[in-house]
TrEMBL record:
Record GO cellular component, one term: cytosol
Enzyme class: transferase
Keyword Metal-binding in record: no
Descriptive protein name: Aminotransferase
Taxonomic superkingdom: Bacteria
A GO BP entry: L-phenylalanine biosynthetic process from chorismate via phenylpyruvate
Amino acid sequence: MHFDAIGRVPGDPILGLMDLYAQDANPDKFDLGVGVYKDDQGLTPIPDSVKRAEQRLVDTQATKTYIGGHGDAVFGALISELVLGAGSALIAERRAGATQTPGGTGALRLSADFIAHSLPGRGVWLSNPTWPIHETIFAKAGLKVSHYPYVSSDNRLDVAAMLATLSNVPKGDVVLLHACCHNPTGFDLSRDDWRQVLRIVRERQLLPLIDFAYQGFGDGLEQDAWAVRLFAAELPEVLITSSCSKNFGLYRDRVGALIVCAADAEKLMDVRSQLANTARNLWSTPPDHGAAVVATILGDAELKQQWSDEVEAMRSRIAQLRAGLVEALAPHGLAERFAHIGTQRGMFSYTGLSAEQVRQLREKHSVYMVSSGRANVAGVDATRLTLLAQAIADVSG
Ligand code: LMR
C-alpha cells in the first residue's frame, strides 16, 4: 500500500499538553503549558474592544471576496504604525511595508521561505533555547540553523556568551531576536544589551529577523517596541514578524504580519514582490476576519484606547501573578531560588525545574508545563498560587 512506510511522529510538545490537560479529571489541575492568557476564571477572554469591532464588521462588511497577496492595506499600514511608531520615518519614506500573514507563525514561515529562495546560502541563528517551532520552521525551509547561547546552565541570561558567539557569525547570516517577552525563558535584554547586539549586527553585516509576538505583555505597548524601533532606525534592512494572537486575544483567527524594512522604496517593492509570490504558493491570500478586527480597532481612536487599556490590564495582572508566585514560594524557603520568576517578562518563565521535576508536577499534582521547565505564568489564577507553590516545593526537594 502507498502509506505502508509512513511512521508516526510524536505530537507537538506544546499543543500536545492541551490534550493531556483536557483529559485530566483532577478539578485542581493547572494549565501552564501553551502560551495563552487566562483570567481568574481560567478563561481566555475575547477583549471587549474585539467584540465591539466584530459587531461593527457584522453590521457593515459588504463582501468577503479575496484580499490581495499582502492582505488588507489598511491593516498593513496600521500594524506597521503600531510596531514602528506613529511618527516612523521609515513609513513616511515608504521604506517599510507589511504583508498580512496567518498569525506570527505564518510570518515566520514566509520569512523562512523568503530567506531560502531570495538569500541563498544564508544561515539562520536562533537563541538557545528558543520557541521549538523556530527550529523546525527554518529547518523545513532547507536553511542551516545554528544557535547562539542565551541562558547559562544556572538559568541566568548570559549576554556575554551571546555576544561572543554573535561576533563570530558568518557575515550576511540571519539572526533571529525576540523583541520582548523571550519565549521560552522570559529573560529580556536590557537596552544596553540591545545596543551591543546592534553593534555586532552592524559589524558582521547580519540581517536581523525580530520576532515580536508579545507586544504589550512586557513593559507596555510602546516600551516593548523600543528595540524593534532602534534596529529599524539604525539599520537599512530589518525583518519583523508581528503577531496579534496574544495582545488582541485573536489566537484562532490567525492574524500576523511580516514587516520588511528596506534601504529605499524601490528595493522594498522588489522584496514585496517576492513575498507576494511566496505567499501565493503557501496560502494564496491570508484570512481576513481577524485582521479586519485589528484594523477596525487601530483605526478608531476610542476603540484603540479601550484595547490598549485591556492589554495593560492583562500585562499588569501577569506582573502581579509573577510577584504573587514568588511570595507564595517564600514560606517554603524558595523565594530566592525562584526570584527570577518576579523579574522575567511576559507570559513565560523558565523556572529552572528539570524535565523530571516537570514530570512529577504533572503526575503528582496535575500541573502541566513544557518539559523544558517553561511555565506560562498567565495560566494561573491568583486564588490558587498557594496550591501551586506547594506543588513546586514538593518536587523541588
Ligand atoms: C507558545 O509558545 O505556547 C505559543 O507561542 C503558542 C504556540 O503556538 O506554541
